[in-house]
Amino acid sequence: DPIGDLERWASTTSPEVPARRVEGPWGAFAVVDVAVGSGVRAILYAPWEGRPAPTRAELDLLILVGQHAAAAMEHSLLYARVRSQADELNRMAAIQADFLRGVTHDLQTPLTSIGALAVELRADAAVPDSARADLESIAHQAERLRRMVGQLLVASRLEAGAVTPLQEVFSVRPLIEGTWSTLRADRPFALVVEGRPH
């Protein structure tokens, strides 16, 4: 409801006293100020006509009611703020997931084409051996990128709750040796696998 004359009058009656009995054009009222921080203020008022002035115990009770009302208002404001932030985070997460899905889908097709062309050229007898090694590296890196893009897609599906993770057991040695040979580093390399091979 819009603020009326009674509320305006109640708000200007001795605001330095948090709970009080005041008399005015509308009769006698018990008035309690409620403040939440510096930005939010409220007034509780109740008709007090024909009753004696509140005792100290009644004023203390009214102050306590005002403090509880202030706490409830503060919790309501905090909840509204947190809810707004959560909605914004959910909106941003949805945008991120859509972006990831779009990018991964758009990248998979050209990477597959690059890998297929490299394999096809490598099979051509007219291609020199030095170029075959480069084509092997291109095919390997294209497949590696395609797997990474696929993992991004899986990660976005995991975040959306669309898939559940599946554990996989694999041998580490071929992965490391393939990566080292792709780097073509002029350094000695020895791989020591201790423990189980997979």
Structural write-up:
This protein has 198 residues and is α+β, with helices and mostly antiparallel strands. Helices cover 60% and strands 12% of the residues. The protein has helices at 5-11, 56-123, 129-160, 172-183; strands at 19-24, 27-36, 40-47. Strands 1-2-3 form a three-stranded antiparallel beta sheet, with helices on both faces. A hairpin with a 3-residue loop joins strand 2 (27-36) and strand 3 (40-47).
Secondary structure elements and their pairing?
Blueprint lengths: L4 H7 L7 E6 L2 E10 L3 E8 L8 H68 L5 H32 L11 H12 L15
Please name the defining characteristics of this protein.
single chain; 198 residues; alpha+beta; three-stranded antiparallel β-sheet
Major sheet summary line: 3 strands, antiparallel
Strands in their spatial order, largest beta sheet: 1-2-3
Poorly predicted ranges (pLDDT <50, ≥5 residues)? none
> What structural class do helix, strand and pairing data support?
alpha+beta
Q: Total number of β-strand segments? A: 3
Radius of gyration in whole Å, from Cα? Answer: 37 Å
Helix and strand element order: HEEEHHH
- Oligomerization category of the chains in this entry: single chain
Strand content: 5-15%
Query: In which range does the helix fraction lie?
Result: 55-70%
Rounded to the nearest angstrom, the distance between the terminal CA atoms is: 72 Å
Give the number of helices: 4
Shape: rod-shaped
Mean pLDDT: 82
